[in-house]
Amino acid sequence: MTGQQLTPKIFACRQSIKLAEKIAKQYGAELGNVKVTPFSDGEFQPAFEESVRGRRVFIIGSTNPPGDNLMEMLLMLDAAKRASARHITAVMPYFGWARQDRKDKPRVAIGAKMVANLLQTAGATRIMTMDLHADQIQGFFEKPVDHLYASTIFLPYIKSLNLDNLTIASPDMGGSKRAYAYSKYLESDVVICYKQRTKANVIGHMELIGNVEGKNVILADDMIDTGGTLAKAAEIMMERGAKSVRAICTHPILSGGAYEKIQNSKLTELIVSDTIPLKQEISKIKVVSCAPLFADVMDKVQNNTSISDQFLM
């Protein structure tokens, strides 16, 4: 039997074990066995408990902080490489450290490029991820990158709401391309929030460009961290006469007091995917799983078929 005919192996990093189980179930396989041995100083050693020689290996793990999540992915990639896996795909639903995609001030690192180098050096022969913070991060890799879009899972949910006078909003200028893509598919209007930050995660000033009076507004963003931007945007839009304000955010980082901020905000609902596990459940957060999307694309990669039908926009 040749390597091409061997069934792939799917493994999970600990931070993404629940999502990986869903993906494996959708794929029609079981997760492979990985044993992680901890050391008393915090170091750990992952080990595959089954052969991967000559196989295509999918290693599923988001690399959101703390740094142990990224380190676990790197160690598992290296282990697969040294165990003679034929193809090694790093399936990273959330690509951490992506906000550092350029030098926006002197004497800073380009963290996303550094992470790309680490992944390739560790052994990744392919990268699979969703809604990168900046599309150009794909260019940091010399290996193939499957960049998926959460619109594939969010658009059916939005359409199921049957909202009239729908308007798509971008919470900042940088997200305008995403907002216009959603609006084109949904045939809706677009408004944009213009914000100025005093420092990271702190908004100094925000203005609304466009009319939201009498509209059901949906804010579209790739991630939500502290929740300050969305809460502020929802407040301004409701003051300007919006009927309702919802938000769709692919990656629910939700750090600091984000959960309380969202629950107390003017948002009707926050729709997120499960790229990052929620730390707590609140009534305003709705989770739409990305597992079927990743399972389908993994199957297409395994069978060397096109994945272009997964791009709704």
From TrEMBL:
NCBIfam families: PRK01259.1, ribP_PPkin. It holds the Pfam family Pribosyltran_N. GO terms for cellular component: cytoplasm; ribose phosphate diphosphokinase complex. Residues 9-123 form the Ribose-phosphate pyrophosphokinase N-terminal domain. GO terms for biological process: 5-phosphoribose 1-diphosphate biosynthetic process; purine nucleotide biosynthetic process; ribonucleoside monophosphate biosynthetic process. Its EC number is 2.7.6.1. It catalyses: D-ribose 5-phosphate + ATP = 5-phospho-alpha-D-ribose 1-diphosphate + AMP + H(+). This is ribose-phosphate diphosphokinase. Keywords: ATP-binding, Cytoplasm, Kinase, Magnesium, Metal-binding, Nucleotide biosynthesis, Nucleotide-binding, Transferase. One of its GO terms (molecular function) is ATP binding. SMART domains: Pribosyltran_N (SM01400). CDD domains: PRTases_typeI.
